[in-house]
Amino acid sequence: TRYVLSRSSAMLGDCDTVRKSALAYGMPNERIVTFPWGIDLQQFSPADKRSEQETFTLLSTRSWEPLYGVDILAQAFVLAARQEPSLRLIMLGNGCMKDRIMQIFHNTGLLNRVEFPGQIAQADLPAFYHRADLYICASHSDGTSISLLEAMASGCPVLVSDIPGNREWVTENVQGWLFPDGDAQAMSRGILNAFDNRQKLVEMGKEARYLAEQRADWNKNFPELFKVYQMVL
Question: Which end of the chain, N or C, is less packed with Cβ atoms under 10 Å?
Answer without folding.
Answer: C
